[in-house]
Amino acid sequence: MAGTVEAAGGPARPRLLPSTLLWQTFLLVALLLIVALGSWVQIFRYFQEPARSRDVAQMVVSVINLTRTALINADFDRRMDLLIDLAALEGIRIYPAEATDELAPLADTRPLRLLTADVRRQLGDHTRFASRWKTLDGFWVSFRLDPDDANDEYWVMLPPERIENPDDFGWLGWGGGALLAALLGAFLIVARVSAPLRQLARAARMVGSGERPPPQPESGPQEIALVARAFNQMAGNLARMDEDRALILAGVSHDLRTPLARLRLGIEMSGAPDDEVTAMVADIGEMDRIIGQFLDFGRGDAQEPTAAIDLATLAREVTEPYRLRGVDLRLEVPESLFVQARALSIRRALANLIDNALRYAGGNAPLEVTVSIEDGQARIEVADRGPGIPESEIERMRQPFTRLEKARSNTKGAGLGLAIVDRVMRAHQGRLELSARDGGGLRAALCLPLAAPAGEQDRMRRSAHSEPDRP
């Protein structure tokens, strides 16, 4: 339940409370129940102890008075037999008091203070108490046959079960049972509240991943039902907006690209000088590519379902057309490396990184595309020798329509390539890493969670370090 919290600018510190609403609320309710039960126990003891002390004191006084009466009325020669009978039949031991008696005081507790005060009030201030007489432990009370004769004094020991409360553990058991029942009820109540919230959280994650969640049940408490109804309405509105956007984008693609195709054909057949035709055709191609980027960004995450895909095979297929066009590209991939992802989205992301590298690095040096496993994640890295991105600008370059100041004189591109890649990675619970390359240039890496079990991952790690593919 508990975890760690990342401290700003420092190491992670342990989390004192669990992170889920269920356990936070349950622990709070459990704490309140424990405090309430403890308070009721103390209140009960506070008001119950005086009454019980009076009852026990009355019993002690009655035993001592009966014992004194029996000793006074008995013949002096038969007193010893009477003491033996009391010890055997009633468990009451009586011994003559002596000046050399070794005594241990009673424990200083509220019940014993109340008890001794009541007994002393009835028997007289000369009454003494002890928890041990010589070597015998028990509840010892002194009494005199004649209140004015200090030499004729006796000690009487009562059985401990007559003094102690035998129901303490019984009350403790009942209290513990009641507490457990209350905690179980509290857990069921909190779970009933948090279950719909967890369902809504799962549905919200599906919306964030570009999927359409199933309708949420609009039942239960009024507040939960209102939230579920609002979520269903929001999900329906988003689905209709996606459908409208797809329809609009399809129209835009047709209405813009068809005139561009006619314009390109007209330019190629115009009879203009070859260098002018080549420049104009390149501009039209760049316009078409920019339109494609706008469409890719506008579509958002594809509705293609995720599946286990081999990144090594995908990298070979994406880079092969660039090789055929004469691009100096070096590819290093393992035998296979599987992830759970949308193949078309990953292809588009990798192609965008390669296009971005070619646009800014040009033919300065070969591009390097590497597929590997690092820190428990699959990694596709595109490294170039272009101008790179300053570290202070890396986060800004993830935003749409963003270009470096140096690149603004170059009108090619709409500044959407890295934004599209970053969106694709976030939809796959992965990340886009941008970092400076030693010797100049940029490293752009797609990091994705592995899809294979632990044994298969070990095999893939071994194959990731095998002989790489070379052109």
From TrEMBL:
<dbReference type="GO" id="GO:0005886">
    <property type="term" value="C:plasma membrane"/>
</dbReference>
<keyword id="KW-0472">Membrane</keyword>
<keyword id="KW-0902">Two-component regulatory system</keyword>
<dbReference type="InterPro" id="IPR038421">
    <property type="entry name" value="RisS_PPD_sf"/>
</dbReference>
<dbReference type="InterPro" id="IPR005467">
    <property type="entry name" value="His_kinase_dom"/>
</dbReference>
<dbReference type="InterPro" id="IPR003661">
    <property type="entry name" value="HisK_dim/P_dom"/>
</dbReference>
<keyword id="KW-1003">Cell membrane</keyword>
<keyword id="KW-0418">Kinase</keyword>
<keyword id="KW-0597">Phosphoprotein</keyword>
<dbReference type="GO" id="GO:0000155">
    <property type="term" value="F:phosphorelay sensor kinase activity"/>
</dbReference>
<keyword id="KW-0067">ATP-binding</keyword>
<dbReference type="InterPro" id="IPR036097">
    <property type="entry name" value="HisK_dim/P_sf"/>
</dbReference>
<dbReference type="InterPro" id="IPR050980">
    <property type="entry name" value="2C_sensor_his_kinase"/>
</dbReference>
<feature type="domain" description="Histidine kinase">
    <location>
        <begin position="251"/>
        <end position="452"/>
    </location>
</feature>
<dbReference type="Pfam" id="PF00512">
    <property type="entry name" value="HisKA"/>
</dbReference>
<dbReference type="Pfam" id="PF02518">
    <property type="entry name" value="HATPase_c"/>
</dbReference>
<dbReference type="InterPro" id="IPR003594">
    <property type="entry name" value="HATPase_dom"/>
</dbReference>
<feature type="transmembrane region" description="Helical">
    <location>
        <begin position="21"/>
        <end position="44"/>
    </location>
</feature>
<feature type="transmembrane region" description="Helical">
    <location>
        <begin position="171"/>
        <end position="195"/>
    </location>
</feature>
<dbReference type="InterPro" id="IPR036890">
    <property type="entry name" value="HATPase_C_sf"/>
</dbReference>
<keyword id="KW-0547">Nucleotide-binding</keyword>
<keyword id="KW-0997">Cell inner membrane</keyword>
<keyword id="KW-1133">Transmembrane helix</keyword>
<feature type="domain" description="HAMP">
    <location>
        <begin position="191"/>
        <end position="243"/>
    </location>
</feature>
<dbReference type="InterPro" id="IPR004358">
    <property type="entry name" value="Sig_transdc_His_kin-like_C"/>
</dbReference>
<dbReference type="InterPro" id="IPR032408">
    <property type="entry name" value="RisS_PPD"/>
</dbReference>
<keyword id="KW-0812">Transmembrane</keyword>
<keyword id="KW-0808">Transferase</keyword>
<dbReference type="Pfam" id="PF16524">
    <property type="entry name" value="RisS_PPD"/>
</dbReference>
<dbReference type="Pfam" id="PF00672">
    <property type="entry name" value="HAMP"/>
</dbReference>
<protein>
    <recommendedName>
        <fullName>histidine kinase</fullName>
        <ecNumber>2.7.13.3</ecNumber>
    </recommendedName>
</protein>
<dbReference type="InterPro" id="IPR003660">
    <property type="entry name" value="HAMP_dom"/>
</dbReference>
<dbReference type="GO" id="GO:0005524">
    <property type="term" value="F:ATP binding"/>
</dbReference>
